Amino acid sequence: MTLDILKNEIQEFINANIHSDVAKLAFKKNPFPEIDFAIILNQITAKSKAENKLPTWFQTENIIYPSKISVEQTSSEKTALYKSEIISGESLIDLTGGFGVDDFYFSKKFKSVVHCEMNYELSDIVNHNFQQLKAENIKCFAGDSIDVLKNLKRKFDWIYIDPSRRSDIKGKVFMLKDCLPNVPELLETYFNYSENILIKTAPILDISAGLIELSNVKAIHIVALENEVKELLWEIKKGYSGAIEIKTVNILKDKIEKLDFDLSQNYYANLGLPKKYIYEPNSSIMKSGAFDAVSFLFEIDKLHGNSHLYTSEEIIDFPGRTFQIEQIIPYAKAEMKTFLQNKKANITVRNFPETVENIRKKWKIADGGNMYCFFTTDLNNAKIVLLCTKIKTE
Fold it and tell me: What residue spans of 74-176 are helical by DSSP H?
């Protein structure tokens, strides 16, 4: 870590070029020959990525940024805030600290937080940044996290781990054992230092596969940001063998959509033909696979066992998108020509044999407009198209 990057004139140059084309900037003469221009360009790139994702860091003076990849891979402030609200206690140790965004938010809820990071330079950067952010109850340790645990010789209320996928397993099925650290292998070791563990994994991890690898799972949080699943959070408690709760969360600009259900409970969906309103679950619910639970818990009908669209006569507050059905047509040549050919529409397919691309090409349907079309299959196995208008929910 070089503190030369914090010189006023260099920081002014970085801030003045936040929205510049860095590739073009690289061909210009380095105005600060005493420091490698590549380091300055990386600060510009990384800080620009932090503008929306990490506004607290972006707006704080004298922050040093690591590689742009570290910024891309770190939690956003919004998901870090959510994590800090689901666990609590006196002390927490993060075994895979990274850029430290999660720990900054944990430090607002825990009296003491320990940040472990294998990369010594990144550890120095994070320690410096915590000082600028006035996060005085976080201690940074560089090196192997198991060594840190052994050397500290203490127990924590929580252990937090964000294992990274090894680079040599490209193309293989994503398993926790293929990550560093190998959590399934080290779980019993971790239990010597805490009875509670929170594990963050990428959304690509299959939930059923994770449950095979992990024991003592108490809850799984599926966290989406603006309807894009960003992470899975696994609450592990030593000795726990009870029911596993699934918590789906979709963090939006003005609200948070939530749906909780018991993984061990058998939910039964009621099937029904399309009524006045149609509902499409958000991405966190889709990831959970809780399709029958949605019908049961909200007391709304499912269009088909495999369609994952829901309907009701009266509108309800639903965690996802809500539409009013204006017309229901069979997927047939005459009806398609009359209602959709050469028109503009937003198209979604659910349990339907054709892709959006094929449908658009076949019927010359342009993208956009105020019409929303769901190509799907009803409970009688008939191929239908729902012509809808979107309902704006508060």
Answer: 77-86, 101-106, 120-132, 145-152
CA end-to-end span of the chain: 47
Task: Kindly give, in sequence order, each residue whose CB lies less than 8 Å from that of residue 168, ignoring residues fewer than 6 positions away.
Answer: none
| Residue carrying structure tokens 């650290």 | 181
Instruction: Find, among 346, 338, 348, the residue nearest to 366 by Cα.
Output: 346
List, as own/partner pairs, every contact residues 42-47 make where C-beta atoms lie below 8 angstroms and the sequence separation is at least 24, other chains included.
42/67, 42/68, 43/5, 43/14, 44/14, 44/17, 44/18, 44/20, 46/70, 46/71, 47/14, 47/18
Task: Give residue 70's pLDDT band: very low, low, confident or very high (50, 70, 90).
Answer: confident
The Cα–Cα gap between 269 and 277 comes to 17
Q: What phi and psi, each to the nearest 5 degrees, are found at residue 236?
A: -115, 130
* Dist CA 94 CA 148 (whole Å): 11
The residue extents of the domains of the chain are 3-66, 74-262, 277-391
Q: Residue 280 half-sphere exposure, CB side, CA atoms within 13 Å? A: 22
* Buried-state track 227-238, b at ≥16 Cβ within 10 A, e below 16: eebbbbbbbbbe
User: Is the full-model pTM beyond 0.90?
Assistant: yes
| Burial class of residue 112 (count of CB atoms within 10 Å of its CB; 0-12, 13-18, 19+) | middle
Helix %, strand %, coil % for the chain, to 5? 35, 30, 40
Count of alpha carbons within 13 Å of 161, Cβ hemisphere only? Answer: 25
Instruction: Please tell me the CATH code under which domain 74-262 is placed.
Output: 3.40.50.150
Backbone φ and ψ of 125, nearest 5°? -60, -45
Burial class (CB in 10 A: 0-12, 13-18, 19+), 106: buried
The total of other beta-carbon atoms located within 10 Å of residue 94's CB is: 25
State how far the Cα of 229 lies from the Cα of 227, in Å rounded to an integer: 6
Task: Sort strands 112-117 and 138-142 into parallel, antiparallel or unpaired.
Answer: parallel
- What is the C-alpha to C-alpha distance for residues 348 and 373, in angstroms, rounded to an integer? 6
- Average pLDDT, stretch 45-59? 94
What is the largest distance, in Å, between two alpha-carbon atoms of the chain?
A: 75
Residues with Cβ within 8 Å of 15's Cβ and at least 6 positions away in sequence, in order, are: none
Confidence at residue 168, expressed as pLDDT on a 0 to 100 scale: 61
Cβ-proximal residues to 196 (8 Å cutoff; 6+ apart), any chain: 87, 89, 157, 158, 159, 235, 236, 237, 238
Beta carbons within 10 angstroms of residue 263's beta carbon: 18
User: Percent of the chain scored above 70 by pLDDT?
Assistant: 97
